[in-house]
Inverse folding.
């Protein structure tokens, strides 16, 4: 049986987390003029990246880049930068105007909208990772090959079944708490708008679909662990049955009479707020008592030390207090601009580097980057064939150019070998015309023992390219460049040592 994909559940989980956040953002937007579209789009990106990050770390890719801390540094910095961007763009003109104060006061960037966006995106990342981890626990295991039903196997199956049931319960609780949060936020609205009803209907459909998906995957995993054959029609029928059930539930919810008044009556609101205020006052009182008790416990040793010191120094002459000098009042001055400008330039560079690092880790970006040279070569070929921007040349010129084609480029092995010959001739070791490449390598190796291996390797590569017609790949080209550099370095050192001996 094929392993199910994680893309569909990951996208569904991300959208379900984004919907309550969108409702909260709409409520904030109604009072502050906030543009909630930017935060909703950023939450989708953060949720999908959190799912992809978990998949990469489960595969162990972070171990090749210095551990989890260094691997997560770019992700955390990119999350903070994205929260700052969303907070600025979401405020509109007011956000762009407030950026002028950041140059002289960098701490002004940590305002309330930024902290709200940062906490929201961080919650989306954590919840998305937890949701996909629960879905991963429901992935069907491969068929067991053990022929005997041992006691260990029974314990393993029971533990796997318990983990799947716990994952389904966690997904159901998460969907329920998200729906409760939406109801609470919608209950504070005085008038229910069509947009809020649409968000609630979408969340209801998505939550029911996610719970049905989790239950189906858990049941299929249990069947597969029992080595049962599952027909493809079972998944198809279950999917259509889930769609029909969810559709009927949504139609029933929409058919109910709409509520024109808020969920919480006006008479209850004052009582609930009073109870909340009393609970908050009690919590603050207990906190102050706890802090005072800790302060008293910390001050007891200090008071004891002061008492002992006063008893020991009771006969001493009291010291005359020294009056502190008068400090002149500070002169008001404008903070400098250059430190702030340099600071934000560094932050912009680090932000671009973090986004570039996150983009390079994506699988589809790596595929596009690998195919980009081929696409560029094809585009250049098509442009050269058409040449629609160049004037038409006379036919005689075209015939002359066609009769003299350009020579093919030389191979890297031939170029490296001739470069070694020129360097050796410039330092007093020329190749004579009667000598073959092999004879020149042997005679030079006798005079320069330390460069014999490099020159023989370059000669062998020259033979393969010039006579056997074998082209060098990229790895061989890099190796040839290393051989040529070592050959030049050793010849130069030999010549320097020879001049030093002659001078002595």
């Amino acid at each position: 049986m094929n392993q199910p994909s994680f893309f569909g559940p990951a996208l569904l989980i991300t959208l379900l987390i984004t919907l309550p956040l969108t409702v909260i953002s709409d409520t904030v937007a109604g009072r502050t003029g906030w543009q909630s579209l930017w935060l909703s789009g950023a939450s989708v990106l953060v949720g999908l990246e959190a799912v992809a990050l978990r998949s990469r770390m489960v595969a162990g890719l972070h171990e090749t880049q210095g551990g989890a801390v260094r691997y997560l540094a770019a992700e955390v910095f990119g999350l903070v930068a994205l929260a700052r961007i969303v907070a600025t763009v979401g405020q509109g003109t007011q956000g762009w105007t407030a950026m002028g104060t950041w140059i002289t006061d960098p701490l002004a960037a940590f305002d309330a909208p930024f902290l709200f966006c940062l906490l929201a995106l961080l919650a989306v990342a954590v919840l998305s990772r937890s949701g996909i981890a629960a879905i991963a626990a429901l992935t069907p295991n491969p068929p067991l090959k053990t022929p005997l039903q041992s006691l260990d196997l029974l314990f393993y199956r029971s533990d796997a079944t318990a983990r799947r049931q716990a994952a389904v319960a966690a997904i159901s609780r998460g969907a329920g708490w998200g729906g409760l949060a939406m109801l609470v936020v919608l209950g504070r609205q005085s008038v229910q708008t069509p947009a809020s009803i649409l968000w609630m209907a979408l969340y209801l459909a998505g939550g029911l679909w996610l719970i049905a998906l989790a239950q189906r995957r858990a049941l299929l995993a249990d069947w597969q662990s029992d080595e049962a054959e599952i027909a493809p029609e079972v998944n198809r029928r279950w999917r259509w049955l889930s769609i029909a059930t969810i559709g009927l539930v949504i139609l029933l919810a929409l058919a109910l009479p709409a509520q024109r008044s808020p969920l919480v009556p006006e008479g209850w609101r004052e009582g609930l707020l009073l109870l909340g205020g009393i609970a908050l006052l009690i919590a603050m009182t207990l906190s102050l008592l706890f802090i005072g008790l800790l302060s008293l416990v910390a001050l007891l040793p200090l008071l004891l030390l002061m008492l002992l010191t006063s008893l020991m120094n009771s006969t001493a002459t009291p010291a005359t207090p020294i009056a502190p000098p008068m400090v002149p009042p500070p002169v008001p001055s404008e903070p400098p601009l250059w430190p702030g400008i340099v600071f934000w330039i560094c932050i912009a560079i680090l932000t671009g580097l973090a986004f570039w690092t996150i983009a390079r880790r994506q699988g589809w970006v790596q595929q596009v980057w690998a195919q980009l040279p081929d696409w560029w070569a094809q585009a250049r070929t098509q442009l050269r064939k058409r040449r629609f921007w160049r004037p038409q040349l006379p036919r005689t010129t075209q015939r002359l150019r066609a009769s003299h084609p350009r020579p093919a480029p030389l191979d890297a092995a031939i170029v490296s070998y001739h470069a070694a010959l020129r360097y050796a001739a410039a330092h007093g070791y020329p190749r004579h015309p009667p000598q073959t490449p092999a004879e020149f390598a042997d005679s030079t190796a006798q005079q320069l023992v330390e460069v014999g291996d490099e020159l023989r390797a370059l000669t062998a590569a020259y033979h393969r390219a010039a006579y056997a017609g074998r082209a060098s790949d990229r790895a061989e080209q890099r190796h040839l460049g290393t051989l040529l550099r070592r050959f030049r370095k050793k010849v130069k050192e030999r010549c320097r040592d020879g001049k030093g001996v002659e001078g002595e």
User: Anything to note?
Assistant: The two ends are 82 Å apart (CA to CA).
